[in-house]
Amino acid sequence: MSRDIDPRLLRAFVTAAEELHFTRAAARLYVAQQALSRDIRRLEGELGAELFVRTTRRVALTADGERLLPYARGVLAAQDRLRAAAAEGPRPLLVDLNSEGLTSGRVLARARELAPDHELMARFESGLTGAAAEILAGRLDVSFGYADGLAPGLRAGLRSQLVRYEPMAVLLPYDHPLAGRAEVPLAALAGERVYAGAGNPRTAEWTELARQLFAGRSIAVAEPAPMAVGREEFRRIMAKHRTPVLTVVDSPEMPGSVLRPLVEPVPLSPVFLVWREGLKHAGVAALRAAAAELGRSGGWLEVLPASWVPRAPQH
C-alpha cells in the first residue's frame, strides 16, 4: 500500500459512494466519467481492495468499500478543516523581548504599526540561548540578542538580522564607589567580579560576550548564582551580594542599584533579530522592516572608532 494517498482519489471515492452512479459523480466533480473511473481504479490499486461492484444496471459498494468509506470521509474532513484554518490568516507570532524596555520592545511596537492586521504577541524569555532552543522546537517564533554567541548547533537552524550595536552598561549597588560617576571606564572595574549570567544555560551567549569584553582587563565574570526574578528579589540579591551586573544602557533602573554606561572604550552589544529558518509569517517581515527603519533613523548600526565590538564567530 502506498504511504501517501492523493486526496483527489479519496474525494472521487466518496462522491461515487454517495451517488452510486458514476455519471452523476463525475458531473459533481467536473471531470469526465473515464477520469473518475481511472481514479477509482488507481485508489483500489493503492489500497489493495476492491471498492465498488459495477454492472450494466447498478453500482454498489463492496464490503471493503463500506468499511473504508468513513475513513476516507474523515481524511477529507480534516483537509477541509486545514483549508479553513489557513483561510483565517496566520496565527499570532510569538515574539520574545527578553525583558521590558529594551531595543526589542521598540522594534515590536513599530512592527505592530506596520502590520496592524497581524497579531504579534510578546513573550519574555531569559537569554537568547534558551529562546533559540524554544524557537527551534516551534514553541517560540522570534527573539532578540547576541546571535553570534550561540553554539553552532543552534545557529544552524536560525536566520538573523543585525538590529543594533547597543552600548553596554553596568548596574551597581547604589553605594558602590563607582556609583557616583556619570560613566564608568572599563579600567575602573579592574579587580571586580561582574555578574553576566555564568552558569545559566539560557544566557550562555551573554556570558560569552562578557568573557570577550573582560579578557585582558582584570575583570572577572562572577561565579554562577541563581537568577533573581522580579524587582524585589533583585533588590535583595544586590544588597546581599553587592555584585555589579553587566547589562545595556536601555536596561530599566532596578531597586537598590544605579545604571551607569561603560566607556573607554564604549562596549557595544550586537543585537540581532532571530527567527526560525523557513518561517513564513507577515509578522517576521514587519519586524525586519521595523528594525531596519529604526536602525537607519537612530544610527543603531554605527560603530565609532572609540568603541569595542566582539569578534565575529569562526564558521
From TrEMBL:
Q: To which protein family does this belong?
A: Belongs to the LysR transcriptional regulatory family.
Q: Which GO terms describe its cellular component?
A: protein-DNA complex
* Transmembrane regions: none
Q: What is this protein called?
A: LysR family transcriptional regulator
| GO molecular-function terms, A-Z | DNA binding; DNA-binding transcription factor activity
Q: Which UniProt keywords apply?
A: DNA-binding, Transcription, Transcription regulation
HTH lysR-type domain location is 5-62
One Pfam match, by short name? Answer: LysR_substrate
